[in-house]
Amino acid sequence: MRILIAAFAALSAALALASPVASQTKPTQKSAFQPTKTVTIIVPYSPGGGTDAVGRLMARALEEMWGQTVIVDNKTGGSGSVGAAIVARAAPDGHTMVLAVSGIAINAHLMKLPYDTATAFAPVTAIAYPVSTLIASPTLPANDLRGLVELVRKEGPDKRTFASPDPGSRLTAERIFEVAGIKLTNIPYKGAASFVGDISAGRVDVGISSITSGLSLLRSGGLKSLGIMGTRRVSILPQIATFKEQGFAGLEDNSWYGLFAPAATPPAVVKAIQTDIATVLATPEFLAKLTDVGALPGGDTPAEFNERFQRDIKESGEAIRRLGMTVDCDYGLLTMTEMADNAGRIAASVKLPVIADADTGYGNELNAIRTVREYERRGVAGLHIEDQGFPKKCGHLEDKVIVPLEDYVAKIRAAVSAKTDPNFMVIARTDARAPLGFEEAIRRANAAIEAGADMAFVEAPQTLDEVKAVPRLIKGPCMLNMVWRGKTPDVALLDAEGMGYKLSILPGMLFQEALGVCDSILAEVRATGRHPPPKLDITPHQAFQRAGADEWDRYRTQFRTTAKQAAE
Fold it and tell me: By the 8 A CB rule, do 91 and 74 touch?
């Protein structure tokens, strides 16, 4: 998975002070874009930060090229979404744009926005790529990522801490730790400045930062770097090895400072602006200023940048869901923490054991371990984990993606190992029937049983013969999922028991029936202005009784009687 890093204070005051280089930046060719009035570049973050500095530097260069005033307008709030919303509504003529960091792709998964991130903008180009590093306290007994891995494995997971001033930096750190196979405890911060100082003081062990944000402390020894993102070292700190050099693949990508116009901006205008920015980026003076602070020049074409932007939106959402950080999920999914909390509330409200859906285990083996621990801690009696890729789909929908068998088995083994209650059930679900065939589904179910699963669950067998064959072919207890009007033929509970199933579930049946009743009533109200008589004669008193009102009345009477006796 590619790496996303949200808004850092990425470029230092040195770059901000360098803004007047516009007078020294003299592109040799005529501008492609011909603005007719003042151009506004909205920076949706505070003045003085990296995005602001890059925006002002580029604004002065473009102002000289275009012969029109180019201003930077800071519109802060909502992790960049306030300024982005202004541009989403602006006239699509190239005169109003937003310069944002890759965190704009993350916002779509963390908050309700007044625009659709994927379609509200016309990506112009990435102006620059700030190089990011895993910084550490100088007292940490590790000098690179390999040393951190050895330290955490020696001490145990969650003993060491990492700081995250924003969701993007947390995602990046979690990805690094995932690749390295270690687990640290997250300490959230509200800003970059405070967490860098706390890491330097040893109050937190590590954190993700741009090279520039920690440059002075890195040079003075107040911080040390355990490695950098990217494919090559940076000239200002050439002694710091990349993660790739240390043997950790998949950590090559950096964040970006990207320029966006409103969605309906004509492609010719977007391309003209990108062409002019590429011209500025090619000048030695401008390039030197970026290099001096550890940033790499951009210049992607609109098509290239849009492709990256769309991937970032998708992949950041998948990562956020695995971490349980999102407020909304694709396909109606809940995050692990939401699901565990809901299952725990249900378990506390009923006298029957509750077995909950745990989707894919929300990631790899480490995520599966955490999922089991969180569900078990909330009083749930069991869960089932499936072999779909993430984000998953309902088992009775099409186009499901199935993970490799070895990955699935590893998650099941990890989930089983995480149990502390021997009665807690780990059910292994396979969705392989539709995309890979019935035989492969049976093979996966048996592999999960051999890995220690308490029960196997073949999702969506498509014929009655397949339904009957599942408990006969699997070397362990089986569960049947009866989705009403789904792909599986309807089988009565008693018939399923006779076939050899140990557990049958009826997901959504009550909800589907209730939804049908609601639709029927509302349709009649809409058509006639009158509501129909209820089909079932249930009084309000009976409804309150079903909700447990009598039990609470007994408690109230008990305590009032006791209080009266005490008073007498």
Answer: no
